Amino acid sequence: MEYQVVIPAAGQGKRMKAGKNKLLLELNDCPVIIHTLRVFDRDPHCKGIYLAISPGDRETLLELIRGFNIQKVVKLVDGGEERQHSVYNALLEVDHEIVLVHDGARPFIKQETIHQLVEEAKSRGASIAAVPVKDTIKKVMDGTVEETIERSSLWMVQTPQAFQVPLLKKAHGDAASSGFLGTDDASLVERLDIDVSVVESDYDNIKLTTPEDLYFAEAIIKKQEHMSGGNRHV
User: Fold this and answer.
1) The predicted structure's pLDDT at residue 44
2) Closest CA to 94 of 50, 149, 43
3) 3-state secondary structure of 178
């Protein structure tokens, strides 16, 4: 069940309107990126973390990693122009059988989900975390509804996404050579006609994208503290 993880952390998060890398924003007196790193740092099955970063954030991140005693960060790799390029840069450093790709702005992923993803990737090649769509979905063009989409087969995709390393490296290499830019790493694998399995995650595994998401994150932390009897470590 061992794995390594790539965490792209080079984006500026313009929709967060923070004026800096959103992963450096504090949540419950701790930077978002540290919340995320701790999930993997505390997982005995995680054998290494690779961060794809903006060069301008290198010193700040190194200080945070040392200050919060994060032990499993193997390397900070300079990111690229797009998220996909950043992941590929870090992926080239990975030397394990299974790799996860996880958004730095998803601090609430559960280890149980991670382990299920790793097992699926080991047996099937590729696996993604996702949750069923709750709302009615409509296709809209020019402000007019064209159709209502049957939602029973629709899932909202999250991270982590888990892959056998040779497969993901091939998918990224093929995408790079053809100039294809995917919406996520799984879409690159799908181009190779490889089936991607789905592991049902949970709705707390949100991505912090806009200022409003910080309110939801605080509510999730309070819920976790309540469920653990106030003993949640930050």
Assistant:
1) 98
2) 50
3) helix
User: If you average pLDDT over every residue of the chain, what do you get?
Assistant: 94
In a domain, 51, yes or no: yes
The answer to whether 192 and 198 are in contact (CB under 8 A) is no
Answer whether residue 73 is part of any domain: yes
212: domain CATH number is 3.90.550.10
Categorize the per-residue pLDDT at 15 as very low, low, confident or very high, splitting at 50, 70 and 90: confident
pLDDT of residue 232: 52
Return d(Cα 39, Cα 36) in angstroms, integer. 6
Q: Which two tokens stand for residue 188?
A: 């690159």
Domain assignment present for 232: no
The domain of 8 spans 3-227
For the chain, the domain total comes to 1
In this structure, is residue 94 part of a structural domain? yes
Of 225 and 170, the structure prediction assigns the larger pLDDT to: 170
What tokens were used for 143? 């402000």
Give residue 230's pLDDT band: very low, low, confident or very high (50, 70, 90): low
Provide the b/e sequence for 84-106 (b: ≥16 CB within 10 Å): bbbbbbbbeebeeebbbbbbbbb
